[in-house]
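The record is given unchanged here:
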Amino acid sequence: MSHNTFGHLFRVTTWGESHGAALGCVVDGCPPGIRFTVAEIQAELDRRKPGQSRFVTQRREADEVRVLSGFMEDGDALVTTGTPVSMMIENTDQRSKDYSDIARQYRPGHADYTYDAKYGLRDYRGGGRSSARETAARVAAGALARKIVPGLVVRGALVGMGEKGIDRAKWDWDFVRDAENPFFTPDAGSVAVFSDYLDSVRKAGSSVGALIEVIAEGVPAGLGAPIYAKLDQDIAAGLMSINAVKGVEIGDGFATARMRGEENADEMRMGNDGRPVFGSNHAGGILGGISTGQPVVARFAVKPTSSILTPRKSIDADGNEVEVVTKGRHDPCVGIRAVPIGEAMVACVIADHYLRHRGQTGRV
């Protein structure tokens, strides 16, 4: 199988399957001299890992990362050497028997049929390589990517779940990472609403989708290119590569189709520091594929989890018509744990473009 790598200079290859012995990533192109700790990478993985509340899958994985190569020790920290950084996360709580009843059935909404159509076989144990379990490796790579661009801060939040949304006037970034917040929501008042809503969805044997917003601050102006290496193009591609993502928008996105030109244009004035000051950010920090220096804003839509207890009509590998019920441990809203994954993909793309910009122009 090909196409397990993304990025150009900051190049990430992921490997492993949902029910294999382990999964991981190799980050090639990370510059030498980047200081990091295993604890910093582990902290990001802990945000994504399963089993942390009743609202996510109860698969119990420690997701403990091991950094195998590409570093030298320097006191309490590790320092990259410029060689490939390899990281590994062992799988410790696989329950492949949960999938034995549907080993030859195609789950509606999943990649079962298309995977079989392409390769002539599929790993029915949680989807194998096509499982969202693979995204743990991306989060590990993203933790390292955050170190590449000086001053870069990438944060994400869940801003909608099914029919429910947040009050944006109550946005609090500190609350997103609060231990009492199981949804990565920036609005404390939405927790009770989301909890009751998701409990009812879960008890009905169903699932629901979500809307995630990622904001990257400290992105220097000039990253990207005007034609085939647009910064927003690569961010969209990175976010669309996440399992279950069905839509991406940059800045105001689809809402701009309902605007007039004078409303949508981000007006500029000269600041006291000799740099432009924008009156708005409808463009999401990117114009003509190149960063403006404003916060880069991206949102992505995550579809409802396809593994549900409600019977769904389908077929099996022999062409028989069947009804599929997916048992086991699944997220009633897979979008919840997509927040740190979205952050990781945006961080990786920006780090890659930063290195490409530096290599092409010599400017940072």
Summary: The chain has a mean pLDDT of 92. The first strand starts at residue 5 and ends at 6. The CA atoms of residues 164 and 235 lie 26 Å apart.
